[in-house]
Design goal:
single chain; Aminopeptidase; 10-stranded mixed beta sheet; 8 helices; DUF2817; M14 family metallocarboxypeptidase
């Protein structure tokens, strides 16, 4: 089964003309400056704020911002939180900021904290999965990538290779994955679109090559009181992947060049919130991300102490 997409010729990968047509169809729908930069600036009295890069897309500039624990100590384990790798996944960004406001100093004597709330600001403003060049940042965490967002984050984290204990990457799975983003991906790559099923609820993605089932379980248990956990489909899968355990799937994240694999941290996970469910709200989605981050840090610290 396949469907058409309004840009491109079925069966033919996009060239620059098609990418330009896609780009021209994207419209700014919200403000990175107001919704991300301003809240980060409000946290500058409590955390060290770093501009680790700057994007310039067709004359529009975006600062790439990270926040570090004040009083960073090299002997402490490092906890990494990333959000907004896909700009349209709102609770990844807002959940990271809420975590910083409410709990960012809870482990100040036990761990270093590095938070990158919005990896893809152009995508955030356009509620878009891809970047300006129609590239998915979350398939581009490798040396020599052409995705500027991914390259900048790789450079920021290069000095921390081997020193990150835990990395949690905050994402969402939305109805538009099926209605827009997967059809666009098929069209861009000249492949047929194969419909899938969007899971109703929160789930996690573990690394099948370095699984940490106890860590994943702890995060699921922390999130369950906040929002419902996704159940498998009729085939026993979530997004075509078999369950590792309740609410958890796994695949080789490093082979797909996903953000969660970039540091080689011992404990890694990718959260997937479902904001389109009638059973949840934007506030609950943000709170679910906060609960996940707190549980992830708590488990990682308990494992080394």
């Amino acid at each position: 089964m396949s469907t058409s997409y309004p840009i491109g010729t079925p069966g033919q990968p996009w060239g620059e003309a098609e990418r330009a047509a896609w780009r021209a169809a994207q419209r700014k729908q919200r403000s990175h400056a107001d919704e991300v930069v301003a809240p980060i600036e409000a946290l500058a009295a409590r955390f060290d704020v770093e501009t680790y890069g700057r994007l310039d897309y067709d004359g529009q500039q975006f600062p790439l911002l990270a926040l570090r624990s004040r009083g960073w100590r090299d002997e402490l384990p490092t906890m990494l939180v990333t959000g907004g790798v896909h700009g349209y996944e709102t609770s990844g960004v807002q959940g990271a900021l809420q975590f910083l406001r409410e709990h960012g100093e809870d482990w100040s004597s036990r761990a270093n904290l590095l938070v990158v709330p919005c990896v893809s600001p152009w995508g955030y403003e356009r509620i878009q999965r891809w970047n300006f060049d129609a590239l998915d940042p979350n398939r581009n965490f490798f040396a020599g990538t052409k995705a500027a967002e991914s390259a900048a984050l790789l450079a920021l984290l290069a000095p921390l290779q081997g020193r990150v204990l835990m990395h949690i990457d905050l994402h969402e799975t939305t109805d538009t994955d099926e209605s827009e983003f997967r059809p666009a991906l098929a069209a861009r790559d000249g492949k047929p679109f194969e419909p899938g099923e969007i899971p109703d609820g929160f789930y996690l993605v573990d690394d099948s090559e370095r699984p940490q089932p106890g860590f994943q379980r702890a995060v699921i248990e922390a999130v369950a009181p906040v929002t419902h956990i996704a159940e498998p489909d009729a085939k026993g899968n979530i997004i075509d992947c078999p369950l590792q355990q309740h609410g958890v799937i796994a695949f080789a994240v490093s082979r797909s060049h996903l953000c969660a694999a970039m540091t080689g941290a011992r404990f890694t996970t990718t959260t997937e919130v479902y904001p389109d469910s009638p059973r949840t709200s934007p506030a609950q989605c943000n709170a679910a991300q906060v609960a996940a981050v707190r549980a992830a840090i708590g488990y990682a610290l308990a494992a080394v102490n």
